[in-house]
Amino acid sequence: MEQSNLSFWQNHSVNFLEMALQSDRREVLNNPDGFGRVGREECGDMLEVYLMIRDGVIHTAGFETNGCLYVVACANTVTCLVQGKAVAEAMNISSEDVMAFLETLPEKEKHCADLAVAGLRAAIAEAREMERSPWKKAYRESKMSYGRPRPRT
To answer: How far apart are CA 37 and CA 105, in angstroms?
Structure first.
C-alpha cells in the first residue's frame, strides 16, 4: 500500500472511517415526513436528507448525495445523531457536534459538516410545514431527485 493511502487510514478516527464508509443510512426514504435539499455552488455537492417522524421523534433518517467522502461522513453522522431524538432536540445539532463526533474531519472540510446540518434543518423545517399543511405533501414529490422520476416538462 502506498504511503499516502496508508496515511489517510492512520489520520482518521474510527468514527470518521465508519461514517465515511457505512451505507445503511444512505437511502431515499419513500414518502418522508421531512425532506431537505441543499447544495454548495463552489464544488457542486448536493445533499438530500429524508426524515420519518413519529409522535415528534425522528424514527428514521436517510440521505443521498453526489458529494465527496467528507460529505458522506458528515451526512451519515447527522442521520445517526438524530435517530430517536425529538425534532426540537435534533434542530439543535450543529456543525461542531458533527465535527466532534467525527474527531478527525479536516478543518478545511468543515463546509461539509455545515452542508449536512443545513440539510437536516431544511428537512425539519419542511416536516413542520407539512404538519401544518399536510395537503402540500402530495405536491412535494417533484422536488426530490434521487431515486425518483423527474417531473415531466
So the answer is: 22
Length of the chain as a residue count: 153
pLDDT at site 135: 60
Give CA torsion, residues 105, 110, 115, 116, to 10 deg.
Answer: 30
DSSP 109: G
Is 153 within the bounds of a domain? no
Name the pTM for this structure: 0.85
- H/E stretch holding 9: helix 3-10
User: Would 96 be classed as within a structural domain?
Assistant: yes
Degrees to nearest 5, angle at CA 73 with 105 and 120: 105
Please write the tens of the pLDDT for every residue from 3-30: 556 677 788 999 999 999 999 999 999 8
Domain span at residue 100? 8-141
Look at strands 45-54 and 57-65 and give their pairing.
antiparallel
Instruction: Give rounded-to-5 percent helix, strand, coil for the chain.
Output: 50, 20, 30
Domain count, the chain: 1
C-alpha cell at 78: 447527522
Residues 6+ apart with CB under 8 A from 149: none
Please give the single-letter amino acid code of residue 18: E
Residue 3 is assigned to a structural domain of this protein: no
